[in-house]
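protein under study:
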Amino acid sequence: MMASRTGAQSTAVVEESMAVVVEPPNLKVAALGSFLQLGDIKEEEEYEYRADMLDLTSMDIKLEEHMAAKALGKRDDEPEGPKAAWEIDLSSLHIQRAVAHGVHGTLFRAEYYEQDVAVKLLDRGENGYSTLEEIAHLRESLEDVVIIWQKLDHPNITKFISVSMETTNLMIPHLTMTVPPAPAVAHATSSHLIKHMDSKLPYKEVVRFALAMARGLSCLHSRNIVHRDVKTENMLLDEELNLKIADFGVARLEAQDPRKMTGTTGTLGYMAPEVLNGKPYNHSCNVCSFGICLWEIYCCDMPYANLSFTDASSAIVQQGLRPKIPRCCPSTMACIMRRC
């Protein structure tokens, strides 16, 4: 079993007579830093239909496209053009088709000023942000990330183009982001790994993917951005298998007060124990997720595939469960996995 992250002295943050204990990120951040040094490793007519003949998948995609077009539709009282440098000019955005469905929303292929782009439409769901106060807080948090992301130009981070924050009649906000490479070219690293479940990846390719992910995360951390959903599904590969970190829908700037960043945000199997347990956390949670991704890239397998949500969550939090590292894994790589 992978060793749990222990042995570091806790740091007590006391404010207004309330003590909050936060696990220091030293070991996890050091692990990411160590991995960055591995770069020298060589590498409308009416018809009657029969129910059993209906294509429900196609109908679902058409419905998603219709809802996206409606949600992104330009209102009559909306001023022409973007409101800020980072906001989408909705009159120039043309949604084409849905290409993927995720936990936090739907990915569409679209065209923006004659450029082929990807658009992520966030769906907060029935239990999402519904009050004016919650919506205002969400918009402010997202704007903080967007302002920084817009200025990033890193080979391992998807290039940000624009964002739009609109609301439905239910007051549930939708965040739309357009980023290249377009879905026509890009595919998730997780899909690439599934294709190699039997043959596995060459070790040089494992190192190349992991270094790209580590460099991208290091850049985000240097700007105080906490991605909060680091997983292979959010690592896109272009036609030359260059890896780029994507999907910043739940990303936030790291809070100076740890108590302001809590909650189980992310994807089970990749979340750090402190996130699963609803405790305060910081950017070190990304490093824990990076360790799981590193294991997944090396093994070409899914972590905790045979455990239920409840069993996995309990074991990760209570027992320090981590995926088992194969004996054949090179010692340097295994050490990085354990330290994360």
